[in-house]
Amino acid sequence: MDYLPIFVDLKGRKALLVGSGEPALQKLRLLRRAGAAVTVVTPEPSAGIEGLAQAGEIVLERRAFAAEDVRGCAVVIGATADPAVATAAREAGIPVNIVDHAELSTFIVPAVIDRSPIVVGISSGGAAPLLARLLRAKLELELPARLGDLARFAQRFRGAVRAVIGDAPSRRRFWERFFDSPAAEQVLAGNERAAREAMLPLLNRISAHTQAGAVYLVGAGPGDPDLLTGRALRLMQQADIVFYDELIGPEILDRVRRDALRVYVGKTKGRHAYTQDEINQALLREAKAGRRVLRLKGGDPFVFGRGGEEMDHVRRHGIEVIVAPGITAAIGCLADAGIPLTHRDYASSVTFVTGHTRDGADADWASLAQSDRTLVVYMGLSRAGAIADQLMAAGLDRTTPVAIIQNGTLPTQTVVTGVVRDLEALAAPLAGQGPALLVVGKVVTLAAAWAQQPDQARVAV
């Protein structure tokens, strides 16, 4: 290693910052987050530094640097190329960092991911600072926002665990189970009360074979794996078995834990691998056997995904349910097609409806046929003609713009636009080529401008 990675306790200790400008302000923010008592020396302080000084949060010396300024400091940072700062700190035996000058520095300030008390530092040793920042951005997406809450939660239970589990190897195995358990996931989801309740059986050392499992109800988004949420990815990596739908493509399934059992339960028109009752029973059976059960659905599980029915069924049998919302198809697909759901000039409201209602119930077409509304119809491709007829019969202008988005957010995405009177003809060539959304409303007119961009050639107007 070129540098030894260490973490320094600066709480209440003096830190010297020499210089001004944005680089100095960035380092100043880090020092203050670490609890340091910061003195800034610069003849021309920036507005940000002046503001902190006026608020009494730092000491500001409006003058040039002098060698004696380093006296009593725990660290010195120079946002200046003046070698005198590095020389004075080195001679006093004080760690020094000169921004963008590794050759003058005795330590490097890494790119930081702060989930206090969990802190991750990434450094290239000054060789490629931008690469370190890019890695930090990638890891920021991977690490849960409440990771620090999980660390503090575990800290509060350390004494209780030590009292119940005497030997260190058993305690280590306990914590390994805990950090990979539904209880930990509840903390990460912001539900510490449920997590505390789940700790009792863990402390009683119920074995993995008898411990009740959990159901993870996860929305996989509209299809593009880059649109999976951080929570969805985390739960997908924890699952023992996954029940997945027709809309879950191989790119999404590749994100599931490699050794998890995969069960296809998809439904298409006229063909059901499993009935809904069979899915409900399978989720319950596997969770009762102690498995972490992933129910993976396209879009969001609570938007025409029957997630509410599945959640209700397993919870009535005492099984814990953790939900990871997904980017619903209407939001993801319309955004990818350059069609906003609302727009001050075109639509003041938006409505999602399904083209196939339970028991043949019909929609309130008079309510849906409003010119200032965006209407998004899920699963309506095969009924496009009937839907258009109902809307026009209810008073919708025959020239109202419409769009059909098929295989939204995927490389095979197709967007066709026209007017409502031609909706059936627009839909006919798309039959059997993938899931589609129907969009009705004036906002569709914005798709044409979006399609003119060089990388948006999938839109046909």
Layout of SSEs?
Blueprint lengths: L13 E5 L2 H13 L3 E5 L5 H8 L4 E3 L13 E4 L4 H9 L4 E3 L12 E5 L2 E5 L6 H14 L4 H18 L3 H12 L2 H7 L3 H12 L10 E6 L10 H9 L2 E4 L5 H4 L7 E4 L2 E2 L2 E2 L3 H13 L3 E6 L9 H9 L4 E5 L4 H8 L12 E6 L10 H4 L4 E6 L5 H10 L7 E6 L7 E6 L3 H5 L8 E5 L6 H5 L7 E2 L1
Parallel strand pairs: 1-2, 1-4, 2-3, 4-5, 8-13, 8-14, 9-10, 9-13, 15-16, 18-20
Antiparallel strand pairs: 6-7, 11-12, 16-19, 17-18, 17-19
Helix pairs in contact: 7-8, 11-12
Structure description:
The chain has 461 residues and is of the alpha/beta class. The chain has 17 helices and 20 strands. It has a six-stranded mixed sheet. The radius of gyration is 29 Å and the shape is globular.
Side by side, the strands of the main sheet go 15-16-19-17-18-20
Uncertain regions spanning at least 5 consecutive residues: 206-210, 457-461
Task: State the end-to-end CA separation.
Answer: 57 Å
CATH topology of the largest domain: Methyltransferase, Cobalt-precorrin-4 Transmethylase, Domain 2
Q: How many domain units?
A: 4
Q: What would CATH call the class of the largest domain?
A: Alpha Beta
Tally of contiguous helical segments:
17
